Amino acid sequence: MSGSTTTIDARPVVVIEFGNEIPPRSFDPVLPPELYENRLRIDPLRYPQLAEQVPDLAAQARHWAAEISAAGSPRAVFAYCSAAELATLLVDELPGSGIALIVFDPAVPGPGTPQELLLDLALGMDDTLAPSEVPDITGLPASEALRLASSFLRSLVTRAAPDLDDEIAAELTEGQRAWLGFTLSAAAERSAQPKLGRVVLSTDSEWAEADACSVHRTELNVRDLFGTPAVTPLVAELLSAPAAEEALGEEEPCSRTS
Amino acid sequence: MQSHFVERDATEAVVAAQWSRVLGRPPVSLDTDFFGSGGSSLHAAKLVSALRSALGTRIPLKTLFEASTFGALSARIRNDTPGSGGRLLTLNPSGTGTPLLLVPAASGGVIGLHRFGGDPIDRPVLGLQARGLDPAEGEPCGTTAEIVDDFIGVLEKADAPRSLHLAGYCVGGILAYELAAGLRLRGWDVRSVLLLNTSLYCPPLSVSDAAREKLVSVAAEAGIALPEGEEPDAAAVFKAVSSQGPDPIEADFAEFEAGLRVFGSVGAAVSGYVPAPGDFAVRLFSTDDRDDPSDIERTAHPVTDWPDLGLADYRQYHVPVDHFEMIVHEPTLKAVEDAMKDIDDGRRGQSEPREDSSPYA
């Protein structure tokens, strides 16, 4: 008996997901089942000492590439929101070629984003707080901004929950500081927008077509984009494209699907 | 039948108590998400802090971010800290009033009573677990005297506060009353006994009779039809129950059987029970369906109800909901707290409602 055989791509996929997000977003519900079992998860907020310093994204990408290198070259990297640029740098750092980059609802933090995050974190602990009570970290050097914000958040925890034991308070602010540290690093000045691979958008997001290989606009809100398997077929389609293109030796075409 | 969510084990009781205290409302199902219910990161820190204090274990804050539903969080704690709490659980570690001790009913544990660990109860809340729920502990106690001695041993070993309010739901009220008498004899300060719909119609039952009643009830609640005229088979009921619903806890038939034995032992221990008048404060919170008609029918001995026992300090409160609803009924919880607070403050009778009147208007 003869005929064609189908090669199963056994390479893992990398998912970049923020562990402290409320509500959490995860690619788990949308990954095709065979990929779900073989995924490597990166939580950018677990970068060592991210709560204490602001390393640049390239250094973070090198760290994560080294962390997952034992698993071999992945088939794809998935990211969302402000992890978009980290994901592009990670793909560059990883060995092998033909690694698909798939980004849901990408966002590039601007100079004012760390301040917005600080305000959100502060109001999350004390919704009676006036914005003027939150120190302005915009424009400060990243390490100084992180130090000032950290000190303010710790004082706010003490004020909002005076009975909270120190250990828990430290754990809480460590997570917040790591989030700020990452945002400060992602908001660093850049010469150009990152060029993304395949972008999938919810109805609440926008991304310029010129800044991606393809942009897929869905009719789903953010919750449904991540929370239901409705986009699983699209993910499977996006994953199969690079392999086919690579096999043909063609340059990956850019396209748009609305 | 109860319509509200009922926790399935002691871990869930503790988690539910602190969850409701932090968020102001209890989880409504295993799938209730902490952050989806309005929890912020600060709320998360408060919940984890309270659970650490209650369970005496170090739960990392990230646990709640990784397992944010009530069921997942409880499962993580159950798996990561097996046996935490032992026979004396802490449902709430802090508060301003004299501590409240929850005495188990026939189930042997504090399942169903988690709301007493939340608002508006403003005091530390402890909960006893009956001997024998853990199969490794051997046979359950056989008489009320044995149960009382065993509970006192647990309290003394745990160095529990020696000034307490005691509360028992349903038949647990009888055990609370008897425990109060035993503690008084040993010099403990029993502030009050709170009887939560405790009937004194206690029909004569053997251990096996009471266990069989429980088994039939479990099967009925699970919608399992039992062959008419045949003895219910515990193994078959367990198999059917454990195959239903999400994440069955009782994965071990030995634990299921142990629960039945405890139920049977408590049922048999209170058979024909008649209380002797105590010299401590007694508060009865009573619904209209407190006395089960079948228990009335089967009780052969003359019954003198609580109001007629000649208790030294007795008040009765009418609860305007049914037997199952009362333990999650906010106004009833508030009335229970107010009753304890009045006793703590030495204001007996000053702000209490009239005898047998509703305090909930």
Automatic annotation (TrEMBL), chain A:
Protein's name according to its UniProt entry: Uncharacterized protein
What is the organism field in this record?
Streptomyces mutomycini
Q: Species lineage, top-down?
A: Bacteria, Bacillati, Actinomycetota, Actinomycetes, Kitasatosporales
From TrEMBL, chain B:
Which SUPFAM superfamilies does the entry link to?
Answer: ACP-like, alpha/beta-Hydrolases
InterPro entries noted in UniProt: AB_hydrolase_fold, ACP-like_sf, PKS_PP-bd, PP-bd_ACP, Ppantetheine_attach_site, Thioesterase
Q: Which UniProt keywords apply?
A: Phosphopantetheine, Phosphoprotein
User: Record's superkingdom?
Assistant: Bacteria
Domain (Carrier) spans 6-81
PROSITE patterns on file: CARRIER, PHOSPHOPANTETHEINE
Q: Does the keyword Transcription regulation apply?
A: no
Chain positions covered by the region annotation Disordered: 339-361
Give one Pfam family, short name only: PP-binding
Which Gene3D superfamilies does the record match to this protein? ACP-like, alpha/beta hydrolase
**PANTHER family xref list:** FATTY ACID SYNTHASE (PTHR45527:SF1), NONRIBOSOMAL PEPTIDE SYNTHETASE (PTHR45527)
Name listed for the protein in its UniProt record:
Phosphopantetheine-binding protein
